[in-house]
Specification:
single chain; mainly alpha; 2 domains; two-stranded antiparallel sheet; two-stranded parallel sheet; 4 strands; 8% strand; globular
């Protein structure tokens, strides 16, 4: 076969392949655009839902606060009913996290004392919480079992620090217990009032397992996933699953 014939065949092959290559690149571009639009739609829908639900929650919080204050006063506790703490938010930015206080006023000092004792120390290392925490007040137990202590967080959601569905906001001191590559995933989403960890056992889930659950959510968050978590939250609250 002559060299001229080979060159002619190569040119024919290249001309035939070129449209296919262009079509492939075009398909990739369309898919990327669709993915971007899907993400934008998800963010807009999620934020709209957050604002709507948090507005309702913020309207219900003041009368609930009056009830909580009266309940504390009747038990002889005259401290503030609000608990404010620094937590880690999206992109690692810290924010003021709000809750109704469920523990005694000097809870942090008492924790230091408790962690010097067994089995509190071992339990804390596994869960970063105490299931039967002696620092929780009588009113606090009721608030936690019913999840009413979470209501002030609707203000966090309205402000944009949190979302209705997301990962629970971590304490700054917990940062050192999370691998760097996992932490980078966790802070790509806003923390939420409810989330995959809460509907998967909450206090019954070890800290390391909680991190894995929330890492999975951060990488797979979708409107469908959020919706499933949101409705499963009601079941978890009603059954008081892991609410201690």
């Amino acid at each position: 076969m002559s060299q001229g014939v080979l060159i002619a065949e190569e040119q024919t092959v290249l001309q035939t392949a070129k449209p296919a290559l262009v079509g492939t690149l075009s398909d990739v571009s369309v898919k990327r655009t669709a993915t971007k639009l899907s993400k934008v739609a998800y963010k807009i829908t999620k934020r709209t839902f957050d604002i709507f639900v948090s507005l309702i929650g913020c309207l219900l919080t003041p009368p609930l606060a009056i009830f909580v204050k009266l309940a504390y006063v009747l038990t002889g506790d005259f401290g503030s009913i609000f608990f404010v703490q620094k937590r880690i938010g999206k992109n690692g930015r810290e924010f003021n996290f709000y809750k109704f206080r469920t523990m005694v006023s000097d809870a942090d000092l008492k924790l230091v004392e408790l962690l010097e004792q067994e089995p509190y120390k071992s339990e804390w290392q596994k869960y970063r919480k105490l299931k039967n925490d002696p620092r929780i007040s009588k009113i606090g137990h009721t608030l936690r079992r019913t999840s009413l202590d979470e209501f002030p967080q609707f203000l966090n959601v309205l402000k944009g620090d949190m979302s209705i569905v997301g990962n629970r906001p971590y304490l700054p001191r917990e940062r050192e217990d999370i691998a760097d590559h996992v932490y980078e995933n966790l802070i790509t989403v806003k923390p939420g009032i409810t989330g995959y960890w809460q509907v998967s056992g909450r206090s019954n889930v070890k800290f390391d397992d909680r991190v894995q659950l929330e890492n999975y959510y951060a990488q797979n968050a979708t409107l469908g996933f959020d919706t499933a978590i949101f409705f499963k939250t009601f079941k978890s609250v009603l059954t008081r699953k892991g609410a201690d």
